Amino acid sequence: MKLHVLHRTHYAYAAPVRDSFNEARLQPVSIDGQLCHNFLLKILPATRLSHYLDFQLNWVHLFDINEPHSSLTIEATSLVTTTSARVLLADQPTTPLADMERACGQLDRCHDFLQSSRFVDPNIDAWKLGVDIATGLTDAWQVAQAVMHHLNREFTYMPAATHVHTHMRDVLMLKRGVCQDFAHVMLGVCRALKLPARYVSGYLYNGPADQLRGAQASHAWVEVFLPEFGWRGLDPTNDCQPDEHYVKVAVGRDYADVTPITGTYRGTSQRMMTVDVLVTESEFAGVR
Questions:
Q1: Quick check: 217 pLDDT over 80?
Q2: pTM of the entire structure?
């Protein structure tokens, strides 16, 4: 699928601010059948950009604006080709869950994704929930899918029920939230069961006949590590594996590692932020 993504963030400040230093994680990755053909980042007021790859190989763009300004606009446009190449058969046999700690515990790529992080705590409550969900199951992939199915069935998708800094402990009690919350709870449950799991940020295209939650906004889902197959995606918000409708941008321990825009500035704390995301199917030149 050929997709065009527009992500625009606008800040309006109550009084001029200065010394604004920012990081943006908005550029889709080219990996696992996904190819980012073009990415353009525009900043107003205009400033110089630099970029680097972080520890998880996410693209990070840096910029600063030292002079006083009353507004800031960050607009990212991307042209991406996606596929369903990473979809794994639902009944595919993998490593037994009981062997996952031995198989993954010493792997550097898994260590950070078995631990607590800013918004995720694989605590006793997450472990109890995971044990209940996994009853009668032995295969790690089957357990991961069961966790996804349970969260989609038992938790309510409800915008405005939480906020961007809500911890998974609170979501476990509320049993409601948005895609970020569903992903954080799934991370906690999987990690409590010694199944490495990481947070994925990106976008979701909702075609004319699709009924997917989280489209036309930044979306979040989960990847679990299977020794035989590597990282494999699961979306508890929509109870499915990510396919060609999904655009992957960044991975991390949780939302804190992949926040689309982070930064600091000097000046008033009173500001208004608006975010617009538009994902459309595109027939752009040069792609077959």
A1: no
A2: 0.94
